[in-house]
Task: inverse folding
Protein backbone atom coordinates (compact mmCIF):
# COMPACT_ATOMS: atom_id res chain seq x y z
CA UNK A 1 0.00 0.00 0.00
CA UNK A 2 2.92 2.33 0.82
CA UNK A 3 4.39 1.72 -2.63
CA UNK A 4 1.04 2.61 -4.19
CA UNK A 5 1.01 5.93 -2.30
CA UNK A 6 4.57 6.68 -3.43
CA UNK A 7 3.67 5.85 -7.02
CA UNK A 8 0.64 8.12 -6.83
CA UNK A 9 2.75 10.99 -5.47
CA UNK A 10 5.30 10.55 -8.23
CA UNK A 11 2.50 10.55 -10.79
CA UNK A 12 1.13 13.83 -9.41
CA UNK A 13 4.53 15.54 -9.19
CA UNK A 14 6.16 14.38 -12.41
CA UNK A 15 5.29 15.88 -15.80
CA UNK A 16 2.68 13.70 -17.47
CA UNK A 17 4.10 11.87 -20.47
CA UNK A 18 2.39 11.82 -23.82
CA UNK A 19 -0.13 8.99 -24.02
CA UNK A 20 -0.82 7.28 -27.33
CA UNK A 21 -4.07 8.16 -29.03
CA UNK A 22 -6.65 5.44 -28.21
CA UNK A 23 -7.31 3.31 -31.30
CA UNK A 24 -11.04 3.96 -30.90
CA UNK A 25 -10.42 7.65 -31.70
CA UNK A 26 -9.10 7.00 -35.17
CA UNK A 27 -12.33 5.92 -36.85
CA UNK A 28 -14.35 9.07 -35.96
CA UNK A 29 -11.35 11.31 -36.68
CA UNK A 30 -10.83 9.76 -40.11
CA UNK A 31 -14.55 10.22 -40.80
CA UNK A 32 -14.17 13.84 -39.73
CA UNK A 33 -11.15 14.18 -42.01
CA UNK A 34 -13.18 12.86 -44.94
CA UNK A 35 -15.66 15.68 -44.38
CA UNK A 36 -12.89 18.26 -44.02
CA UNK A 37 -11.46 17.19 -47.38
CA UNK A 38 -14.41 19.00 -49.03
CA UNK A 39 -13.99 22.25 -47.11
CA UNK A 40 -12.63 24.22 -50.06
CA UNK A 41 -15.82 23.69 -52.04
CA UNK A 42 -18.16 24.49 -49.17
CA UNK A 43 -16.19 27.11 -47.24
CA UNK A 44 -14.65 29.07 -50.11
CA UNK A 45 -16.69 28.67 -53.27
CA UNK A 46 -20.02 29.25 -51.53
CA UNK A 47 -18.99 32.49 -49.81
CA UNK A 48 -18.24 35.97 -51.18
CA UNK A 49 -14.58 36.78 -51.83
CA UNK A 50 -12.80 37.95 -48.65
CA UNK A 51 -15.79 36.97 -46.50
CA UNK A 52 -14.88 36.70 -42.80
CA UNK A 53 -16.66 35.96 -39.54
CA UNK A 54 -15.94 37.22 -36.03
CA UNK A 55 -14.34 34.69 -33.71
CA UNK A 56 -12.49 34.78 -30.41
CA UNK A 57 -8.74 35.31 -30.85
CA UNK A 58 -8.10 31.87 -29.28
CA UNK A 59 -10.37 30.25 -31.86
CA UNK A 60 -7.78 31.14 -34.50
CA UNK A 61 -5.95 28.04 -33.33
CA UNK A 62 -2.92 27.28 -35.51
CA UNK A 63 0.06 24.94 -35.47
CA UNK A 64 2.09 27.86 -34.13
CA UNK A 65 -0.19 28.05 -31.06
CA UNK A 66 0.51 24.40 -30.31
CA UNK A 67 4.27 24.92 -30.69
CA UNK A 68 4.16 27.96 -28.40
CA UNK A 69 2.23 26.12 -25.69
CA UNK A 70 4.64 23.19 -25.82
CA UNK A 71 7.51 25.62 -25.27
CA UNK A 72 5.73 27.43 -22.45
CA UNK A 73 4.81 24.29 -20.49
CA UNK A 74 7.56 21.75 -19.94
CA UNK A 75 6.33 18.18 -20.27
CA UNK A 76 2.91 19.32 -21.51
CA UNK A 77 0.61 16.34 -21.83
CA UNK A 78 -0.74 15.83 -25.34
CA UNK A 79 -4.12 15.02 -23.81
CA UNK A 80 -4.37 18.58 -22.47
CA UNK A 81 -3.86 19.99 -25.97
CA UNK A 82 -6.39 17.53 -27.38
CA UNK A 83 -8.96 18.70 -24.82
CA UNK A 84 -8.27 22.30 -25.81
CA UNK A 85 -8.59 21.39 -29.51
CA UNK A 86 -12.11 20.09 -28.94
CA UNK A 87 -13.06 23.18 -26.92
CA UNK A 88 -11.74 25.55 -29.61
CA UNK A 89 -13.37 23.87 -32.58
CA UNK A 90 -16.69 23.43 -30.86
CA UNK A 91 -16.89 27.23 -30.83
CA UNK A 92 -15.57 27.57 -34.39
CA UNK A 93 -18.27 25.31 -35.85
CA UNK A 94 -21.02 27.06 -33.88
CA UNK A 95 -19.92 30.45 -35.18
CA UNK A 96 -19.75 29.28 -38.80
CA UNK A 97 -23.23 27.76 -38.55
CA UNK A 98 -24.59 30.90 -36.89
CA UNK A 99 -23.86 33.10 -39.91
CA UNK A 100 -25.51 30.73 -42.40
CA UNK A 101 -29.15 31.18 -43.36
CA UNK A 102 -31.20 27.97 -43.36
CA UNK A 103 -31.00 27.74 -47.16
CA UNK A 104 -27.30 28.48 -47.47
CA UNK A 105 -25.77 25.83 -49.80
CA UNK A 106 -23.04 25.04 -47.25
CA UNK A 107 -25.31 24.68 -44.23
CA UNK A 108 -26.06 20.92 -44.62
CA UNK A 109 -22.33 20.24 -45.01
CA UNK A 110 -21.44 22.28 -41.92
CA UNK A 111 -24.22 20.72 -39.85
CA UNK A 112 -22.99 17.25 -40.80
CA UNK A 113 -19.43 18.28 -39.96
CA UNK A 114 -20.58 19.38 -36.51
CA UNK A 115 -22.34 16.04 -35.96
CA UNK A 116 -19.18 14.14 -36.88
CA UNK A 117 -17.15 16.42 -34.63
CA UNK A 118 -19.47 15.70 -31.70
CA UNK A 119 -19.24 11.97 -32.42
CA UNK A 120 -15.44 12.21 -32.21
CA UNK A 121 -15.71 14.27 -29.03
CA UNK A 122 -17.97 11.63 -27.46
CA UNK A 123 -15.48 8.87 -28.25
CA UNK A 124 -12.67 11.04 -26.87
CA UNK A 125 -14.46 11.56 -23.55
CA UNK A 126 -15.30 7.87 -23.17
CA UNK A 127 -11.76 6.80 -24.09
CA UNK A 128 -10.33 8.28 -20.89
CA UNK A 129 -11.15 7.96 -17.17
CA UNK A 130 -13.44 10.72 -15.87
CA UNK A 131 -10.76 11.97 -13.46
CA UNK A 132 -8.53 12.92 -16.40
CA UNK A 133 -10.96 15.72 -17.24
CA UNK A 134 -11.01 16.95 -13.65
CA UNK A 135 -7.25 17.44 -13.40
CA UNK A 136 -5.96 20.97 -12.99
CA UNK A 137 -4.76 22.46 -16.27
CA UNK A 138 -1.42 24.28 -16.67
CA UNK A 139 -1.89 28.01 -16.14
CA UNK A 140 -1.39 29.03 -19.78
CA UNK A 141 -3.95 26.43 -20.92
CA UNK A 142 -6.41 27.36 -18.17
CA UNK A 143 -6.19 31.05 -19.14
CA UNK A 144 -6.99 30.17 -22.75
CA UNK A 145 -9.85 27.91 -21.65
CA UNK A 146 -11.31 30.62 -19.41
CA UNK A 147 -11.23 33.16 -22.25
CA UNK A 148 -12.91 30.71 -24.63
CA UNK A 149 -15.76 30.05 -22.21
CA UNK A 150 -16.45 33.71 -21.37
CA UNK A 151 -19.89 35.06 -22.15
CA UNK A 152 -19.61 36.79 -25.57
CA UNK A 153 -20.95 40.10 -24.26
CA UNK A 154 -18.16 40.16 -21.66
CA UNK A 155 -15.34 39.62 -24.16
CA UNK A 156 -13.39 42.85 -24.80
CA UNK A 157 -13.36 44.05 -28.41
CA UNK A 158 -9.59 43.55 -28.49
CA UNK A 159 -10.03 39.77 -28.16
CA UNK A 160 -12.14 39.37 -31.29
CA UNK A 161 -10.62 38.47 -34.65
CA UNK A 162 -11.98 38.15 -38.19
CA UNK A 163 -11.19 35.03 -40.19
CA UNK A 164 -12.59 33.29 -43.25
CA UNK A 165 -14.55 30.06 -42.74
CA UNK A 166 -12.05 28.28 -45.00
CA UNK A 167 -9.03 29.40 -42.94
CA UNK A 168 -10.75 28.31 -39.72
CA UNK A 169 -11.35 24.83 -41.12
CA UNK A 170 -7.79 24.71 -42.47
CA UNK A 171 -6.61 25.30 -38.90
CA UNK A 172 -9.10 22.70 -37.68
CA UNK A 173 -7.70 20.09 -40.07
CA UNK A 174 -3.98 20.84 -39.65
CA UNK A 175 -4.10 20.89 -35.84
CA UNK A 176 -6.17 17.68 -35.81
CA UNK A 177 -3.42 15.91 -37.77
CA UNK A 178 -0.81 17.35 -35.44
CA UNK A 179 -2.49 16.36 -32.17
CA UNK A 180 -3.83 12.98 -33.33
CA UNK A 181 -0.99 12.11 -35.70
CA UNK A 182 -1.10 8.39 -34.93
CA UNK A 183 -4.48 8.19 -36.65
CA UNK A 184 -3.06 9.68 -39.86
CA UNK A 185 0.28 7.87 -40.05
CA UNK A 186 1.56 7.55 -43.59
CA UNK A 187 2.89 4.33 -45.09
CA UNK A 188 5.77 6.42 -46.37
CA UNK A 189 8.40 8.04 -44.15
CA UNK A 190 7.06 9.47 -40.91
CA UNK A 191 5.47 12.86 -41.50
CA UNK A 192 5.59 15.84 -39.16
CA UNK A 193 2.03 17.11 -39.31
CA UNK A 194 2.90 19.75 -36.70
CA UNK A 195 5.27 21.45 -39.13
CA UNK A 196 3.91 24.38 -41.11
CA UNK A 197 6.32 23.49 -43.92
CA UNK A 198 4.62 20.09 -44.32
CA UNK A 199 1.34 21.75 -45.28
CA UNK A 200 3.11 24.18 -47.62
CA UNK A 201 4.70 21.45 -49.71
CA UNK A 202 1.49 20.63 -51.48
CA UNK A 203 1.43 17.24 -49.80
CA UNK A 204 -1.94 18.17 -48.35
CA UNK A 205 -3.42 16.97 -51.63
CA UNK A 206 -2.66 13.41 -50.54
CA UNK A 207 -4.62 13.93 -47.32
CA UNK A 208 -7.36 16.22 -48.56
CA UNK A 209 -8.82 14.91 -51.83
CA UNK A 210 -11.23 17.31 -53.49
CA UNK A 211 -14.27 15.98 -55.26
Result:
Amino acid sequence: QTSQVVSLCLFLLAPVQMAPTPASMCTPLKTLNDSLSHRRRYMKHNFPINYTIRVHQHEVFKLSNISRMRLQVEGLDELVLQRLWFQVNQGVLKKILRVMPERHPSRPYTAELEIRFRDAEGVFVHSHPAEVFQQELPEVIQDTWDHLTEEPDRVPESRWRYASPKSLLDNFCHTMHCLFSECFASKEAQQDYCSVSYWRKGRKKDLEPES
